[in-house]
Amino acid sequence: MIYTKLSIVFKSEQKPPFFIGSQLRGAFGYALKRVSCINPSFKCDGCFATTNCLFYDFYEAKSVYRKYRFDFELGKELYDFSFYLFDDVCEKLPYIVSAFNLMLTKYGLGKDRKKYENFNMFINGKSCIEDDNIRLPKDFIKEFKPTKYHPNILIKFKTPLRIKRNNRFIRDDSLSLKDIINSIYHRKLRLTSKELQKYPYEIKGEAVKKELYYQELIRLSNRQKTKMKLGGLMGEMKIENIDKNSYEFLKLGEIIGCGKSTVFGLGKIEVEEV
Q1: E strands within 96-180?
Q2: pLDDT tens digit string along 153-207?
Q3: Statement: residue 246 has pLDDT above 70
C-alpha cells in the first residue's frame, strides 16, 4: 500500500470550527478546480476533459472510490490537519500542494474568506517550505510497512467511526474487532482498485473494555442546501491477545482510515500498545 501525507499547520484569529472537515473539503475543492480545470466554463457536465481531470475524480465522478482523505482531530485551537493520497493518485501531489496554497493565500477559508500567508507545510513529516517557497522532495511516495507486533492494544476512535452492519450504522458498544478489521480490509481493496472479497485470515482478539459513545456531527452542503448528519462512534476499545494480521491491518487503518466518510476526516483511529 503506497501513500503520501501532506500536513498543514497554522493559527487563526478565530477558533476553527469544532469539525473542520466540511469547511476544508469545500474550500479545497474550490481551489483544486481552479488548478486542474481547463474548461473555460468551469462546468463538469458535458466537459470534454473529465477522463483526465483531478477535480472530477475527487468530487464529481459517480460510483468511484475516492483515493484520498482528510485527517485531523475535533475541537483543536488551531488548524492542524493532514491530507492523505493513496495508490496512483500519489503522483498528483504537485496539483494538491498548489490547490492548498491557493486555498490559503488567495481564496481563503470560512464565510469571510479569511486568507493566510504564514503556514507550515510538511510532506511525510518533513518541512517543504524553504525561504518562503514550497519545494517538493524528489521522493514523496511511501510504502506502508507493518510495525512491531503487540498483542495487547488500545484502539482510539479520534473522529466519528461510521461502520454499517446489516445495512445500518452501528451506534452502540456492539462494535466488534471483526467489524473494524473487515472495514479496513475492504477499504484497502477499494483504494487499490481490487475486487471486494472476504477477509482471508481468522480474526483473533478479545475486547476486554469498551468506552464508546455516539458523536453527532452536522455538515451543511452548499450545493444541495441541506444539512447532512455525519455522526459515529468515538471513544476507546481495549483488545487483548490480538493476532498479528489483525494488528497489522489496524496499523494500516491509522493511515487509510476506517469506515465511511473518510474524505471528510471521519474514521480516524490510533492504535497504542498496552
Answers
A1: 120-123, 126-127, 129-130, 133-134, 142-143, 153-161, 164-165, 168-169
A2: 999 999 999 999 999 999 999 999 999 999 999 999 999 999 999 999 999 999 9
A3: yes
C-alpha cell, 271: 492504535
Residue 226 buriedness (CB in 10 A; 0-12 / 13-18 / 19+):
exposed
Q: Quote the distance between the C-alpha of residue 87 and its chain's center.
A: 14
Q: What residues contact 137, with CB distance under 8 A and at least 6 apart?
A: 123, 124, 126, 128
Domains and CATH numbers, the chain: 2-143 (3.30.70), 153-273 (3.30.70.1900)
CA 58 to chain centre: 13
pLDDT tens, position by position, 22-61: 999 999 999 999 999 888 778 888 888 888 899 999 999 9
**Residue at grid coordinates 469544532:** 18
Burial-class residue 200 by CB neighbours within 10 Å (0-12, 13-18, 19+).
exposed
Are residues 250 and 146 in contact, defined by beta-carbon separation less than 8 angstroms? no
CA-closest candidate to residue 193, choices 87, 92, 89: 87
267 C-beta neighbours (distance < 10 Å), count = 29
Supply φ then ψ for residue 114, to 5 degrees. Answer: -65, 130
Residue 132 Rama label (left phi>0; alpha psi -120 to 50; beta): left
Predicted TM-score of the model (pTM): 0.95
